[in-house]
Specification:
Elements lengths: L2 E6 L17 E10 L4 E6 L8 H11 L3 E11 L10 H17 L8 H15 L3 H44 L2 H23 L6 H19 L2 H20 L4 H20 L4 H21 L4
Parallel strand pairs: 3-4
Antiparallel strand pairs: 1-2, 2-4
Helix pairs in contact: 1-4, 4-7, 4-9, 5-6, 7-8, 8-9
């Protein structure tokens, strides 16, 4: 099923920040996109600093979603102006101590520039920052919004499927009275052919025998074209589809199976067709069933 959700956090600070004047401009954003798929296919686009959170995110999504091609994108960006921030005092003290140690061994090295200090402080900040808890909180919130969007789409799909189910029932109701009429028409046709055969043969065959033979042929024809069993099974499958849609829950795979059964009954009805009208009904049924099948693949 399709869906989209996006959430963003307020600026978050570093986990080990000790200088009260230092604050991070980093802002976390989480987007989840879902498109139709028969199976669950998860993809993640995460910043390098948050790669360690992928297993927890995968477990979170797999616990709530059963179908769909789902992509989660996480962004970590500045919220305004420059991304530069003042390094913490402890960081500057550590860099100064390290520079003194290096100069004691290599007195001719160049001193650290401001750019070097900012780059090293930023690198340390990325290393020490742990935004995983905040990321998981945002991911849960985005997942809730995605599920709500998918639920709304599911309600629309369910209504469409109920409408197609009603159309299939109407077609089945049209096909039911056709079989007795076809049998009667065929019976009359057999009788006329036997009368013609008797006239051509000089009446050597008894009329009673000819009538019995015509009735036998008509009965055999009625058995061949009888679709009452197929229509009964089709109605039973439609009842089950309506029940599943009314009950809700994870019904996608059950509906897949029922759609296969509907298609089988429609094919059998078409193969037994004894008239053009019944063939048209079979074709119309197949069109509706195919429309249902395409949408059922989207239902979880």
């Amino acid at each position: 099923m399709t869906g989209y959700a996006a959430v963003q956090s307020s600026p978050v600070g570093t986990a080990q920040e000790t200088d009260a004047s230092a604050s991070s401009n980093a802002r976390l954003g989480v987007e989840i996109r879902s498109v139709n798929s028969r199976f669950l296919d998860l993809a993640f686009r995460l910043p390098d600093e948050l790669r360690q959170a992928e297993p927890a995110l995968r477990e979170l999504l797999a616990g709530k979603l059963k179908r769909g091609k789902v992509e989660m994108r996480v962004s970590l960006e500045g919220n305004s102006g420059s991304n530069l921030r003042a390094p913490a005092a402890t960081t500057l003290q550590r860099l100064g101590s390290l520079e003194d140690t290096v100069k004691s061994w290599l007195p001719n090295v160049q001193p650290l520039s401001v750019a070097d200090i900012l780059r090293l402080a930023s690198s340390e900040d990325k290393t020490t920052r742990d935004d995983s808890p905040e990321l998981l909180r945002l991911a849960k919130k985005a997942l809730e919004e995605l599920l709500a969007a998918r639920e709304r789409e599911g309600a629309r799909l369910a209504q469409m499927l109920l409408d197609r189910s009603a159309q299939l029932r109407a077609l089945a109701a049209l096909a039911t009275p056709m079989v007795p009429k076809l049998v009667e028409q065929q019976k009359v046709r057999f009788m006329e052919r036997w009368k013609e055969a008797l006239a051509l043969g000089g009446g050597s065959t008894l009329p009673e025998a000819a009538q019995d033979r015509a009735l036998l042929e008509a009965t055999s024809f009625a058995i061949r074209i009888d679709v009452a069993e197929e229509i009964t099974r089709l109605s039973s499958h439609l009842d089950e589809i309506d029940r599943l849609l009314a009950g809700g829950g994870e019904v996608g795979k059950r509906l897949d199976f029922l759609i296969q059964e509907l298609h089988r009954e429609a094919n059998t009805l078409g193969s037994k067709s004894g008239s053009l009208e019944l063939t048209h009904i079979s074709v119309d049924m197949k069109v509706l069933i195919e429309q249902i099948r395409e949408q059922v693949q989207n239902i979880e």
